Every structure is written in structure tokens, then in C-alpha cells.
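REQUEST FORM: STRUCTURE PREDICTION
Request ID: SP-0412
Submitted by: Lab K.M.
Chain count: 1
Length (residues): 259
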Amino acid sequence: MHNLCVAHRGASFAAPENTLAAFRQAMAFPFVKWIELDVQLSRDKVPVVIHDFSLERTTNGSGLVKDKSWDELRRLDAGSWKSPRYRSEPIPSLAEVLDLCRGKVRLNIELKTSGDMYPGLESAVLRQIVARDMEQEIVLTSFDQQALRRVKELMPELCTGLITDIRPADLSGRLSALGCSFLSMAYPKIDARLMAEMSEQGVTVMAWTVDQVGIIRSLASLHPDLMVCTNRPESWEQAMKRKSLIGNTILTVKRWLIR
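STATUS: Completed
RESULT:
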């Protein structure tokens, strides 16, 4: 099918986000071809998979990710907040996630940083990717344009993408200047005109984050190459089935009319 399904932080409606449990559940859906995840650095420069800069929301820890060693982070419970079923589910390292997903599903890795918050983040992430020969299975994305520039300086050939929840007038020029061939955009900002412009520029677009079947179907109708990022892969499946059913019905009616 077109309109590829991207599992946002894994199957994060059902399982604790950005954990191996969430990634395994996402990979259990045969139509999930991409997983989106977030990466930061521990105090001792280990790339770790977690969204928030602080630990309180998704773990039993407190404080900032950047102030904790990998040994401290890996001992935290990142699952109980979601359900007792996931008690003691740990924060994964990027290395663990890459090993799980290599050759099975492609990854949209968001570099969670701002300014000089994480010196060396880009090179630490790239080392893990290159060590596994996964350059063709990855896109590195970020809100932080400096992070994207640093990635291109270190590895010009790697696919990078800008994340934005606004639609600036100079978007095409900004993407070109950054060397980005991927755009991760809040779904309300996406329309057919944007898709036509990005398609002409050779930029892949991903809409985030949408769980409602009707909205997924509406987005899919804008362009067949628009990727849809969702916490609920089952909603994507329902939307695509309905889209297929509607298309088949229209085709049947057309055939009947031209008899």
C-alpha cells in the first residue's frame, strides 16, 4: 500500500512509548514499515531512547536525562506508568533498538536536542548506525536545524529531515539549504498544495501524529506518498481498508455505468 504507516514511538497507545515492548508490538503489524523514536545522550555519552528531557513522566526517576549515567538510566522503570503489565520495562539504548530493528523496519530517529544541550549527540548516533551498516535504513530528523547541519557535515550522504509544527513561507528554500530530503510536519499544516510542492522538490513528507481513522483517510487522499505517523497502527489499517473499499465501490459503479 501507499501512505506508509509509521509507528510513533512504537505502538505507543498500547505499550509504553519508546521502549522495546512498544517497538516489538509495532513490528508485529506486517504493514508497519517505519518506526519513529527519540534519542538523547546520557551523562557518559551513551545514546538513549526517550522523548522528554526530564524523567518524571515516563519513568520512576526524576531529574534530567543528560545528568544521569547510562547505568543509572537503565535501572529505571519506564513501563509501570503505562500499565502494571510493563513493570520494570527499561529505557533502551539506541544500540538495543538498532539491533532489534535492523533489516526488519526502517527508523525515523529524532535527535532530541536544543542548542548546545548535547555536544556530540550527532556523532554518537552516527557511530551506532555505521557500526551496523544501517545508513540506508535510517532518517535522522530534528526540530534543531544546527543538529541537522552537523549531521550533514559528518555524513553528507545520510538522509535527514526537518521537523516542524509551522509552515514557513520559505519552507522549500529552508529544506534545500539544510540538505533535507525529508519533512516531518504536524498534520493540520499539510494540504494538497504542500504535497505537490514537496513531491516536485523530491522531499518525502510524514504527517504527525494522527490516530483518528477519518483523518488518516483524509490525509491519505492528499497524495499516495504521504507517510502517516500514528500511535495506533490499527487505526491506519482501518483507514486503508475503508479507502480500498471506497475505491473498489467507485470502480464497480464506473464499470456498471459504461456497460
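NOTES: Residues 76 and 90 are 6 Å apart (CA to CA).
Reviewed by: T.R.
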